Batch of 2 targets.
Target 1
Amino acid sequence: QKEVEQNSGPLSVPEGAIASLNCTYSDRGSQSFFWYRQYSGKSPELIMFIYSNGDKEDGRFTAQLNKASQYVSLLIRDSQPSDSATYLCAVNPDQGGKLIFGQGTELSVKP
Amino acid sequence: DAGVIQSPRHEVTEMGQEVTLRCKPISGHNSLFWYRQTMMRGLELLIYFNNNVPIDDSGMPEDRFSAKMPNASFSTLKIQPSEPRDSAVYFCASSLMGGQPQHFGDGTRLSIL
């Protein structure tokens, strides 16, 4: 069973703090990793993707991948109330197109 | 650029009726995906197509569900007959090719009474 695990939260952080979201996956052969943000009642929106071990930065967002430990994380610096949403981790296990999604972590940024 | 376009946005119908959901992928994208999202099960892949050909339909719940992609710019997901447990939000997504980032449509919120 190929699985992607996330803490459901809610994760609550104060405005301006760093939010750290974590995800583990079971299929060691997975190659592509994605983070989506989903506001309540809206569709998932792509935030970051990462293919190689290490860090990838885009503005306030940093994705971190460690294939040996089979985890991927998303850091959000200078968190804003507008970052409050559910963050979905998705893993492509075989480059065939299929994405396996975690259940999502709910993030709440308090002013 | 136009994103993935889904219709209808909302559908309310009675049990036993046929439901057809529609999707137009982003132009130039070769892969198309149908997902279902519920509180209990999260976001689940139902079926995906590469170059209009169904590749993996293992997520389709049962024979009441069918999907087609007659050309590169249009796909349908059909439920016949519909049941209350089919109530969910159905998303369509597309990507340039398999393994590339997927972009989601706004979804169809389906309620079966």
Target 2
Amino acid sequence: DGGITQSPKYLFRKEGQNVTLSCEQNLNHDAMYWYRQDPGQGLRLIYYSQIVNDFQKGDIAEGYSVSREKKESFPLTVTSAQKNPTAFYLCASSKTGQGSYEQYFGPGTRLTVT
Amino acid sequence: DQQVKQNSPSLSVQEGRISILNCDYTNSMFDYFLWYKKYPAEGPTFLISISSIKDKNEDGRFTVFLNKSAKHLSLHIVPSQPGDSAVYFCAASEVSKAAGNKLTFGGGTRVLVKP
């Protein structure tokens, strides 16, 4: 049963702590993405990776870091430098190449920082 | 600068009637457009897409129309069902090596279908 898993579903952290969100996919997709959704807003791209060991900043990368050591995994670290980390975080994956625009999303992780 | 805009934050429609969701874009390099449906606390799910070489794509109750000259697309859902109540996102992709497979999303439209 192919898909994308994100864990945990809910995450609580104290201000000043780094936290890592997990994203795993078994769809054999080359590309993976991290988005953030705030209440009443759309999805904003944080980071994306089109191939293992390579990734690019999205529109709102400040305060975040990622790694892509394996094709299946694309963890996101929310650092203490991120000023407003409380949000709903979504991971997605897709094929690459011509005509491969559809992205498949995981269930999301809601991070609350107090 | 918001390149993809959904100007109607919410829409209420009677069950059985048509729901029309609108989306405008500014980047003329966008050439592929997608609609996603999202329930609260879940990830978006893909609904339907359209390439810029077409002006209409239909899949069951869902039809997407593209007007390239106006940089406008719309999603029609007919007939609307209570299970269609969700937030709908419009997304656009630019085909270039630099852009990769990035999608740019609109802000979403919340649809409520009343029984």
